[in-house]
């Protein structure tokens, strides 16, 4: 397929940068060519973009998409003044345990389709609403085909003591779940897992060949970011409450800071200051954190608008963080950019530039989503 007449083409490629009046060729599910003077007869199908912008498909590197039920009443109570706590997770755990595999899969498919319609072409999901060995294992199995993270250490379920549950997570549960995941995550927070438990669980995961990512410093300042850097985690997620030492540690590491403004929106918490991170040279990703408790959205354009308005990112930085940043957080070099050889995952916007994603908040600007070179 040859697409011409692209008003602004964001490649995220260090050499190509952002092109104007550009063209791109997709072949065999990959980008075959990109530039400003299209080769003759490059493809069977020709699409005139009519001056619209083309960006890489969004790479949503943080989601909790395997669950049943919803928590609209908890959200409404919060908006009436009740605080957000990790305890709400247990409501979804009960609903998830009671659901069949088919129900979990149907809900997951619905969310992945919803995400695709808003331009997300790569999706990560965690387990973490099962919290028994069989429920965690099936949560990962139903998500086959997505990026998968084992989050048995989401909270301690009501039937366990913290120590016996930590032993289960890093023992038999990890043994059963590791074959179905690439990543291991721990919610390191008061009311969830402390520093010692977090280290022990992540170390056991590394031993099994999983790569760590950490829910860090979400509700208050804590040790999560330092542990993430120490264990060379792919990403420290949330990063809402950071000290200067946390920022230094991130800046001197390969750990990506994944910011999740949907969670601050839905918990009415203060937003992290992305400017501080970017100015220090930290790699930043933006993700939706879709889950029924703290951020029930799959919509990265909404997160981009929040990041620009509330987290002091420029529109260009926010779009980059939701594409290339997400790819870095998942250690993927085939997505998040549009140079020759990359996956042909891209979004044609109903706007001349990606700035409009923040400039026109809430407006449906997704014109066409390409996944593996095909229109989806
Ligand atoms: O990323 N922080 C931990 N986990 C989720 C929230 C889960 C829930 O409230 O159900 C998050 O925000
Ligand atoms: Fe999360």
Automatic annotation (TrEMBL):
Q: Which family does it belong to?
A: Belongs to the metallo-dependent hydrolases superfamily. HutI family.
Protein name per UniProt: Imidazolonepropionase
Q: For this protein, what does the record note about how its cofactor is bound? A: Binds 1 zinc or iron ion per subunit.
What residue range is the signal peptide?
none
Q: State whether keyword rRNA-binding applies.
A: no
PANTHER family xref list: IMIDAZOLONEPROPIONASE (PTHR42752), IMIDAZOLONEPROPIONASE-RELATED (PTHR42752:SF1)
Q: Name the Gene Ontology molecular function terms of this record.
A: imidazolonepropionase activity
Q: Where does Fe(3+) bind?
A: 62, 64, 215, 289
Chemical reaction(s) catalysed: 4-imidazolone-5-propanoate + H2O = N-formimidoyl-L-glutamate
Binding-site list for 4-imidazolone-5-propanoate: 71, 129, 154, 218, 294
Which residues does the annotation say bind Zn(2+)?
A: 62, 64, 215, 289
Name the cofactor(s) required for activity, per the record: Zn(2+); Fe(3+)
> What enzyme category does the UniProt record give?
hydrolase
- Its principal location? cytoplasm
Please list the residue ranges annotated as the Amidohydrolase-related domain.
54-353
Q: Which UniProt keywords are listed?
A: Cytoplasm, Histidine metabolism, Hydrolase, Iron, Metal-binding, Zinc
Query: Where on this chain does N-formimidoyl-L-glutamate bind?
Result: 129, 291, 293
Superkingdom field: Bacteria
What is the role of this chain? Catalyzes the hydrolytic cleavage of the carbon-nitrogen bond in imidazolone-5-propanoate to yield N-formimidoyl-L-glutamate. It is the third step in the universal histidine degradation pathway.
Q: Which InterPro entries match?
A: Amidohydro-rel, HutI, Metal-dep_hydrolase_composite, Metal_Hydrolase
Q: Does the keyword Metal-binding apply?
A: yes
Please state where this protein is localized: Cytoplasm
E.C. number(s) listed in UniProt: 3.5.2.7
Q: In which pathway does it act?
A: Amino-acid degradation; L-histidine degradation into L-glutamate; N-formimidoyl-L-glutamate from L-histidine: step 3/3
Which source organism does the UniProt entry give?
A: Solirubrobacter deserti
């Amino acid at each position: 397929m040859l697409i011409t007449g692209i008003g602004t083409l964001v490649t995220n490629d260090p050499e190509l940068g952002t092109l104007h009046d550009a063209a791109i060729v997709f072949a065999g599910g990959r980008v075959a060519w990109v530039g400003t003077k299209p080769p003759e007869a490059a493809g069977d199908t020709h699409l005139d973009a009519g001056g619209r912008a083309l960006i890489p498909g969004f790479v949503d590197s943080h989601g909790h998409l395997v669950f049943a039920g919803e928590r609209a009443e908890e959200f409404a109570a919060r908006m009436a003044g009740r605080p957000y706590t990790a305890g709400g997770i247990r409501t979804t755990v009960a609903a998830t345990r009671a659901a069949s595999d088919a129900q979990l899969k149907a809900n997951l498919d619905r969310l992945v389709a919803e995400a695709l319609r808003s331009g997300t072409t790569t999706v990560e999901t965690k387990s973490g609403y099962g919290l028994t060995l069989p429920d965690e294992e099936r949560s990962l199995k139903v998500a086959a085909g997505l990026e998968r993270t084992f989050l048995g250490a989401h909270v301690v379920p009501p039937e366990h003591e913290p120590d016996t549950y930590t032993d289960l997570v890093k023992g038999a549960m990890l043994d059963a779940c590791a074959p179905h995941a690439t990543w291991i995550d721990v919610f390191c927070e008061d009311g969830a897992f402390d520093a010692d438990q977090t280290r022990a669980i992540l170390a056991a995961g590394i031993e099994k060949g999983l790569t760590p990512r950490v829910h860090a410093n979400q509700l208050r300042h804590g040790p999560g970011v330092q542990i993430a850097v120490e264990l060379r985690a792919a990403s420290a997620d949330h990063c809402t409450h950071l000290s200067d030492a946390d920022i230094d540690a991130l800046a001197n590491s390969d750990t990506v800071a994944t910011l999740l403004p949907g969670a601050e929106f839905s918990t009415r918490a203060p937003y992290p200051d992305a400017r501080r991170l970017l100015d220090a040279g930290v790699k930043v990703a933006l993700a939706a954190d879709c889950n029924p408790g703290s951020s029930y959205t799959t919509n990265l354009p909404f997160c981009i608008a929040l990041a620009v308005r509330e987290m002091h990112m420029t529109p260009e930085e926010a779009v980059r963080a939701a594409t290339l940043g997400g790819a870095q957080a998942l250690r993927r070099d085939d997505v998040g950019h549009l140079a020759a050889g990359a996956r042909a995952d891209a979004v044609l916007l109903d706007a001349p530039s990606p700035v409009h994603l923040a400039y026109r908040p809430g407006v449906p600007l997704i014109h066409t989503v390409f996944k593996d070179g095909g229109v989806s």
